[in-house]
Write a structure and sequence with these properties.
InterPro entries: UPF0145_dom_sf, UPF0145_YbjQ-like. It contains two helices and four strands. It is of the alpha+beta class.
């Protein structure tokens, strides 16, 4: 399935629009991960635990969005937007776009 942030797909014609589709995931903070991330912040460097968790959450949200597009009969999603929100010490990642059929 083609997934793009652009409103069109170069070289492909959109033949049908199926509506807005979304996918969401929420990941909770882990006390040990927070502790080690805090230590890494003090000594410098990147927090691999957080980066891995964030990448997993993003992939889950995008996968759910694609599943919903398929359910509506789409074979692509255009205009994709990713949002990140912190809610009560949890991170919510949401993906939204328009399910379409391209030729």
């Amino acid at each position: 399935m083609i997934v793009t942030t652009t409103p069109t797909i170069e070289g492909r014609r959109i033949s049908a629009y199926h509506g807005v589709v979304t996918g969401e995931t929420i990941i909770g903070a882990n006390i040990f991960r927070d502790l080690f991330a805090g230590i890494r912040d003090i000594v410098g460097g990147r927090s691999g635990a957080y980066e891995t968790a964030l990448a997993s959450a993003r992939e889950t949200a995008l996968s759910e969005m694609q599943d919903r597009a398929r359910e509506l009969g789409g074979n692509a999603v255009v205009g994709v937007d990713l949002d990140y929100e912190v809610i009560n010490n949890m991170l919510m990642v949401s993906a939204s776009g328009t399910a379409v059929t391209v030729e």
